[in-house]
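ok so i was messing around last nite and threw this chain in just to see what happens. nothing serious, just curious
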Amino acid sequence: MMDTKKVETSALIKTFVIRSGRMTDAQKKAIEDFGPEYILPFSLAPLEPAALFPVPRPLVMEIGFGMGLATWQIARDRPGFNYLGVEVHGPGVGKLIMELRDKALDNLKIVQHDAVEVLKTMILAGSLAGYHIFYPDPWPKKRHHKRRLMRPGIVDLLISRLSPGGYLYFVTDIEEYANATLGLLSSRPGLTNQYQGFAPRITWRPETKFEARATAESRSAFELYFTKV
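result:
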């Protein structure tokens, strides 16, 4: 059973900071002109996934898509799913909208808000087919670990929103964070690791901007792929 007190405590400690990235004129225009088509306003009412997309399909949520490079490619290459991208940073939202317009993709919507709050209020229990959590902020200093996304109260919330058989796909280049997350996910009775320890690279996942940077700095990817019992 999900511990609601842990979730509430975790939600009070933000997993992100708003970075001061410059938004280009094109990104601003994309949000102004096409935002209503792609951006769902944060709401205290649960979403009705079947009403959001032209074709009802299983819904996968990506938490923190950055500039959206891998996000739109996955939406294009895996059309059997609909996608909900959650990101707080405006430049990434604008850039993703530009790509969605350019590629004529209609199976992805965006919420520009804190993912934990979105999960608590907008996502019904058992309604998600999967999560993509690629290169979340590792908060490497020990005193900041309490700000990580992958911590007990939030992980229990994530699990509660997954449908039976739904997956959680997590990638990081920080070995300590990877090992801590492996231990945390393995301790949850509602999840099953699909591999012995870390997963191999899943072939359909494109390289993210952060992954390219990590590779250039000789840091390997650590991947985890769990499913809900």
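not much to say yet. Residues 4-228 form a domain with the Rossmann fold fold (CATH 3.40.50.150).
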